[in-house]
Amino acid sequence: MFDSGATGFMILATSLVMLMTPGLAFFYGGLAGKRNILGIMIQTFVSLGITTIMWVAFGFSLCFSGGEGGVIGNFDLAFLNGISFDAAFDNGKYPMYIFVAYQMMFAIITPALITGAFVNRVTFKAYLIFLVLWQIFVYYPFVHMVWGGGFLADWGVKDFAGGIVVHATAGFAALASVFYVGKRRDTASPPNSIPLVAIGTGLLWFGWYGFNAGSELDVDAITTLAFLNTDVAASFAAITWMVIEWSRARKPKFVGLLTGAVAGLATITPAAGFVPLWAAIVIGIAAGFICYLAVAMKNKLGWDDALDVWGVHGIGGTLGTILLGVFAVEAIGGQSGLIEGDTAFFFKELVAVLLGAIYAFLFTYLMLIVINFLTPVRVSESEEDIGLDDSQHGEKAYDEGAL
Predict the structure, then answer these.
(1) Is 399 among the domain residues?
(2) Is the pLDDT of residue 305 over 70?
(3) Burial of 22 by CB count in 10 Å (0-12 exposed, 13-18 middle, 19+ buried)?
């Protein structure tokens, strides 16, 4: 018999993580210019379909079947072959199918994070190819190496819910995309709907409880710690970002408050179940400060990461992984960090997150070059001027005259 409480919790956590993908679509859709709302939203929503097909067909197998101590798994569990509907997960508390579904939701949202960097510049056909190849050659290997018994796991690297696997890889892939695709023709395009950004942030924040607390893959004290750490870090980061921006711009900015919250959520992700509550406060403040500086630096250098994917997710995931190496407490997650004298673990986390960031950046840049040989990656100037909603999809987000 399965544990009904643990099974119910994992179903809830999986549902929460699924909700993050529409939440991301609303968040990005509100930040985009009014001619590119649907273009960015469909890039997020389409991952729900394509990634699910890939995950069932071979993605789950490549991540979690075979390949012990290696870089990638095998195809033994392709199409979930050999996993019966009542097969148990490793801890015996709930069916294996809910673990498959839970991990699938991570796979769905991770490549979708990247899209905010190249809003209104990339053809839909090229993006679909990107979506497939990036998962196969970046996401699946890092899931296997960190969570699927691969060589980083064997080496002792920890990543509670995706600082390396999700945010660092996606954030630095986004930066590579910015460098390859180039700047928008209209870089002054303002957000079309800040209330929509707020709705998206609320859904992301709500879903993040499943993202982080669910990553304990059980219901215990660590689950509740990860839940509370998630909220605390997001709150401290949001207020830190708002205060910094208020002091510089002389006005408190709502978009800044919302962006700071997402930065805090991304930064606490790798450490949520390994650090005490006081460390979550420090991590939240650090996230608000460092991610704000990263975005400011990006703007000064003229990198057109339109929706700050690199500054929020790339830097947030990297920072959180490094701070996990500092603040991990053995009594909580069974691993000591730098503050408890484990210098080796700190350097393992540092090396692992740099490996993920550098590999994702280089592979993404080269992949875009290859894709451009197959189909144009960037839309034409006339298509960009018209906007992706009309030129790529033949639809408009609002009736004429609504905005």
Answers:
(1) no
(2) yes
(3) buried
Handedness of CA 213, 219, 224, 225 (dihedral sign): negative
In the predicted model, what is the mean pLDDT of the chain?
95
User: What's the number of CA atoms in the CB half-sphere (13 Å) around residue 164?
Assistant: 31
Which pLDDT score, from 0 to 100, does residue 184 have? Answer: 87
Number of domains the chain contains: 1
Per-residue model confidence as pLDDT tens digits over 49-91: 999 999 999 999 999 999 999 999 999 999 999 999 999 999 9
Q: Report if pTM > 0.85.
A: yes
The torsion angle over the Cα atoms of residues 31, 34, 37 and 40, rounded to 10 degrees, is -70
Please check whether residue 333 is in contact with residue 274, taking contact to mean a CB–CB distance below 8 angstroms.
Answer: yes
In one-letter notation, the amino acid at residue 29 is: G
CATH number, domain of 151, equals 1.10.3430.10
**Is residue 339 in some structural domain?**
yes
Q: Is the pLDDT of residue 403 over 60?
A: no
Assigned domain for 288 exists = yes
For residues 143 and 129, give the distance between their C-alpha atoms in angstroms, rounded to a whole number. 20
Residues facing 88 on adjacent strands: 95
> Is position 395 within any domain?
no
pLDDT tens, position by position, 100-142: 999 999 999 999 999 999 888 999 999 999 999 999 999 999 9
Residues 6+ apart with CB under 8 A from 385: 185, 186
Residue range of the domain that includes 353 = 4-387
* Integer angstrom CA distances of residue 284 from 61, 79, 92, 98, 278: 35, 40, 35, 31, 10
Q: How far apart are CA 264 and CA 97, in angstroms?
A: 31
Structure tokens at 268: 């606490």
Alpha carbon 375 to its chain centroid, in Å, reads 27
Give CA 131 to chain center in angstroms.
14
